[in-house]
Specification:
alpha/beta, 7-stranded mixed sheet, 19 strands, 3 domains, Transcription Regulator spoIIAA, 5-stranded mixed sheet, Rossmann fold, Archaeosine Trna-guanine Transglycosylase, Chain: A, domain 4
Length: 395
């Protein structure tokens, strides 16, 4: 018999409107004290008046103390996991011809706290909540049945787990996980480091935005800033760029980028520059270097709301530096994966940078994360990626 989590009066409106999260300050702790629940425990959620709202798992240690998993009496067990995974697979199989995509995107696939990236027969998985950690064995069992993978790697090393009171670790859950795995994106072969790469090893969310380079890179010089393993730069080279320079602080990431360039036969036009992006761009400017296409795809400069002022200034600085390195009528692809930076703010960053430098900025395309990262319409946080492709000319 499941315990009951009761909400305060009028606090059910968000849940009834489609949201899945329950915050600790919305709980009627007099009738259902949070201290009475264990992290990951599944509960019945009720309104203040006792009306049933659904089943959720709880974590009294987290600000988001509950995440809804069903709006009926179904608990999150092997049967429900199988159903949700099959639904997630059905969507991706209809979107992509090859098995390289984000298979599960948490709340948007009604599997809050679970992320699964697919690299053919290999899976990279994150269990980012106490509720998903509690059903870890059922998750792995369901993935084995639905996908029949050769290997599963648990990349449970994200900072989110710390907020959930969980340990951070990387664990091989099935088979032999290769150090690096090949994928195909936009027709380009790429290698991703599974064990020691960033997050799950690859960023599928930028797939459609990288495809913009097919139209704009041909015959042009390209600078890929915060390149990681060369996802933008290598694809630009394959799309016909005459020269590509990739900038990143990580030597191992750049070595993988060089390997990806060689894999695609474009190593001779691909050059890597290790160092702090801000310092590197300042140095390139001082040397009189110019590029016809520049990609600025930084890590989240605003990880928490309190970082907003400082992070916004970082976005302004890096985009202004990029514009100064563009040739006349150059192309700038500017992106942000920070959930706490609004679309309008990134657009204003480009506007103000253009005005400060007396440049005319024309937005040609606007993008977000790809369709394997679907947006939950009631949860704004599921739409986090912003990308603008702009032409920057002399006033």
């Amino acid at each position: 018999m499941l315990k009951t989590l009761r909400l305060k009066r009028q606090e059910e409106r968000r849940i009834q409107g489609g949201h899945l999260w329950i915050y600790s300050n919305e709980v009627n702790i007099h009738e259902t004290p949070l201290k009475n629940f264990t992290p990951g425990e599944q509960v019945r959620v009720e309104t203040h008046g006792g009306k049933f709202l659904g089943i959720a798992y709880v974590n009294p240690q987290s600000l988001i103390c509950g995440r809804l998993v069903s709006r009926d009496e179904r608990i999150l067990d092997r049967a429900l996991l199988l159903h949700r995974l099959q639904q997630a697979l059905l969507l991706r199989a209809g979107l992509f011809d090859e098995p390289f995509y984000r298979l599960v995107y948490g709340e948007s696939d009604l599997l809050p706290g679970l992320v699964v990236d697919r690299f053919g027969s290999h899976l990279s998985v994150q269990l980012n909540s106490a509720g998903m950690e509690a059903v870890k064995d059922q998750v792995l069992d369901a993935l084995r049945e639905v996908i029949e993978p050769e290997s599963i790697l648990l990349r449970n090393d994200s900072s989110i787990r710390t907020l959930e009171g969980l340990s951070r670790e990387i664990e091989v859950a099935l088979g032999t996980v290769p150090h690096e795995v090949e994928l195909v994106e936009n027709g380009v072969r790429m290698l991703a480091p599974l064990h020691d790469g960033q997050k799950t090893g690859w960023f599928y969310d930028q797939r459609l935005n990288r495809a913009w380079l097919r139209q704009f890179a041909r015959g042009r010089s390209v600078l890929d800033v915060f390149s990681y393993v060369g996802s933008f730069g290598v694809q630009a080279a394959v799309f016909g760029a005459r020269a590509v320079a990739a900038v990143d602080a990580s030597r191992p990431a750049l070595e993988m980028a060089e390997k990806n360039a060689a894999l695609n036969g474009v190593g001779k036009i691909f050059n890597s520059i290790q160092g702090d992006a801000f310092a590197v761009l300042k140095g390139l400017k001082a040397e009189g270097e110019r590029f016809e296409v520049i990609v600025v795809d930084p890590p989240a400069f605003i990880k928490r709301k309190k970082d907003h002022k400082e992070g916004l200034q970082a976005y302004r600085r890096i985009n202004e530096l990029a514009m100064q390195l563009l040739t006349p009528d150059g192309i700038l692809l500017s992106a942000s994966c920070s959930m706490h930076l609004q679309r309008e703010e990134l657009l204003d960053v480009l506007r103000t940078a253009g005005r400060r430098l007396d440049r005319h900025v024309q937005i040609l395309f606007e993008g977000m994360q790809g369709p394997d990262h679907p947006v939950h319409p009631a949860i704004a946080e599921t739409r986090y990626l912003k990308a603008f492709l702009a032409r920057v000319s002399q006033g």
